[in-house]
Design goal:
Layout lengths: L13 E2 L6 H5 L3 E2 L3 E6 L5 H15 L4 E5 L4 H7 L7 H4 L4 E5 L6 H4 L5 H14 L3 E5 L2 H4 L5 H18 L2 E7 L22 E10 L2 E11 L9 E6 L2 E4 L3 H4 L9 E2 L4 H6 L4 E2 L3 E6 L5 H14 L4 E5 L4 H8 L7 H5 L3 E5 L7 H14 L4 E5 L10 H18 L2 E7 L21 E10 L2 E11 L9 E6 L2 E6 L1 E3 L2 E3 L1 H79 L4 H10 L1
Parallel strand pairs: 3-7, 3-8, 4-5, 4-6, 6-7, 14-18, 14-19, 15-16, 15-17, 17-18
Antiparallel strand pairs: 1-2, 8-9, 9-10, 10-11, 12-13, 19-20, 20-21, 21-22, 23-24
Length: 582
């Protein structure tokens, strides 16, 4: 059989699938004008992927498409995808065509056949509607009717050459060997993988009773791609492939803005609160007030007018709202005005990946700037530990990329003690701030303690504080240490009371001593004043005595001179000389 000449192929560009995450994995989409092979076990999502590839091409790229159904009638396929948000009926008018290519059972008995007639009809239809994309769904159904491997290889090669000749971006789906190992080596398409430019493998397994889906790009000629398995879920918008936001989007700005934790003393311990867009982890045993502390953050965010999503896994949302009123946290007003979106996630089922997708959708729909997940350790119950850890990483990366402040709680395993090793997800290394809550049992009382284990980029307190819950709110009290023993609760109160009484007694004693000293000081001042007065009097008396004595001497001398003069016994000159000698 003579085949049509294959035209020269220029460097291919990529046809975007607009499937969330898949274009990031492949670096832009499927090879344009080339053939892609998609294989997987039953229920892995091959048909849905093919339909979404065509629908998104018609909606976003204005590229009409053809869907060739070998296994199911087109009417059934359309009915099956009605649950997705796709305008199939509208697209079928001009941009989407379904061909029913189901083989008749009698073909097995008639003998050999080929795809020449069908491809000729498809070529005419493609030219008429200007098709750019085409999907051959479940080609293995037709190949199974061929007598030998040679015939199968011939028809696969014929189809491949036809796609290249018409320049269509083709997607061929087929079944792999089974669910547990959906690899091309066990697929009837094992020889086709060498022809196509791109090969994608879908896996659908069950781990610990939980459904797990992932895909892997096995080859992609002329392009770099992510070679690792990428988890995916099938939601109301179709495929959603999990990729790391850190690799798909570059975060260009780290905010220095602080947001309140809802507890003033905790804000002080953190140097002003949490960073905007940071991830906060609150860990502790059951009953240590993890929900209460995270709810205080949600209430503070609502007071600032910031939309907040609160995801409750362990309790019904209405019960959480009711219970928080006992500690002064009232969500009712914020729920009514739409600022707070409380989600009862107990009804959510599926893998950890599906939970993450649902949470992201709800957060985006409510335009939330803050997200609380209580507890995030629920993800560990929805898959194996490795998968759940990857989900936690993607959750934190996504929140950072979108500038969402994330506060999540994590339940510790009581058998592992009050350490982070009891956390199933082990995400403490990813969180920016890690707050630890614990118990201290003393004298028949159980009291709560809180400490900041780490807080990146902040100068935070290393003190352990007692977490006190009252009907008016949450506060932190200093913990007393007596003789090396930490005191909380009643013992702390008794210690505070004892110290208060001791301080009062000491204060009274000091005041009495002060008064005594003041009286003695006043007495000494009086005595000093009296002595000073007496000394002054003595000085005056002494001065007067000296003056009186000198006056007497002078008077006596004058009297003697006058007596001599009156007696006439001496001349005045002699008397004067004697006076000078004297």
């Amino acid at each position: 059989m003579k085949m049509a000449r294959r035209p020269a192929v220029t460097q291919s560009k990529k046809a975007r699938t607009f499937i969330r995450g898949f274009d990031e994995v492949t670096g832009g989409g499927l090879p344009r004008g080339r053939t892609t092979l998609l294989v997987g076990g039953p229920g892995s999502g091959k048909t849905i992927f093919g339909m979404q590839f065509l629908v998104n091409g018609a909606l976003h790229e204005r590229e009409p498409g053809i869907f060739v159904a070998f296994e199911e009638a087109p009417s059934r396929i359309v009915s099956n995808v009605e649950g997705f948000d796709w305008p199939i009926a509208e697209l079928q008018k001009k941009k989407l065509f379904f061909m029913d290519a189901q083989p008749l059972p009698s073909l097995i008995q008639v003998g050999d056949f080929d795809l020449t007639g069908m491809l000729a009809a498809l070529g005419t239809k493609a030219n008429r509607m200007g098709a750019k994309r085409i999907v051959f769904d479940a080609l293995d159904v037709v190949l199974a009717l061929l007598p030998d491997q040679g015939a199968k290889r011939r028809e696969v090669f014929r189809l491949h050459e036809w796609l290249l000749l018409h320049g269509l971006t083709g997607l061929v789906t087929g079944k792999s060997g089974g669910d547990e190992d959906a690899s091309l080596s066990q697929s009837p398409f094992n020889f086709m993988q060498f022809m196509v430019d791109c090969a994608v493998v879908l896996n659908h397994t069950v781990a610990s009773g939980v459904s797990q889906r992932n895909l892997r790009v096995q080859k992609y000629r002329g392009s770099s791609f992510d070679e690792n398995e990428a988890p995916f879920v099938i939601g109301r918008n179709g495929f959603n492939v999990a990729t790391s936001a850190a690799t798909s989007r570059q975060v260009s700005y780290a905010s220095h803005e602080r947001v309140s934790s809802g507890v003033k003393r905790l804000d002080t311990m953190l140097g002003g609160g949490y960073f905007r867009g940071a991830s906060v982890l609150i860990t502790g045993l059951p009953g240590t007030a993890k929900t209460t502390l995270s709810s205080a953050f949600a209430q503070a965010a609502c007071r600032r007018g910031e939309r907040t999503t609160f995801v409750c896994f362990d309790s019904d949302g209405s019960e959480v709202i009711r219970n928080l009123t006992s500690v002064g946290i009232r969500f009712g007003t914020y729920v009514k005005n739409g600022t707070l979106n409380v989600i009862s996630a107990r009804a959510m089922i599926g893998s950890a990946e599906s939970l993450l997708v649902r949470i992201k959708e709800l957060t985006v729909e409510s335009r939330s700037r803050c997200l609380v997940i209580d507890p995030v350790s629920t993800f560990a119950r929805s898959g194996n530990e490795i998968t759940s850890h990857g989900v936690a990483e993607r959750l934190i990366d996504w929140c950072k990329a979108d500038g969402i402040t994330l506060v999540c709680t994590s339940l510790l395993d009581e058998s592992a003690g009050q350490t982070e090793t009891g956390t199933p997800l082990h995400i403490s290394t990813l969180a920016d701030t890690w707050i630890q809550l614990n118990y201290l049992v003393q004298s028949g009382e159980r009291n709560r303690g809180m400490s900041i284990i780490k807080s990146r980029g902040t100068s935070h307190s290393n003190q352990v504080r007692e977490l006190i819950l009252t009907d008016s709110g949450i506060t932190l009290a200093d913990i007393y240490a007596a003789r090396g023993e930490v005191l909380m609760g009643t013992l702390r109160w008794e210690k505070e009371r004892s110290e208060h009484l001791e301080n009062e007694v000491a204060e009274v004693g000091e005041r009495l001593k002060f008064l005594t000293l003041a009286a003695e000081h006043a007495e000494l001042q009086v005595r000093l004043k009296s002595i000073q007065t007496e000394l002054l009097a003595k000085n005056v008396e002494k001065t007067l005595l000296e003056r009186t004595t000198q006056s007497r001497v002078n008077e006596r001398a004058r009297r003697n001179v006058r007596l001599r003069k009156l007696r006439g016994g001496d001349s005045l000159r002699i008397v004067g000389k004697r006076r000078n000698r004297d």
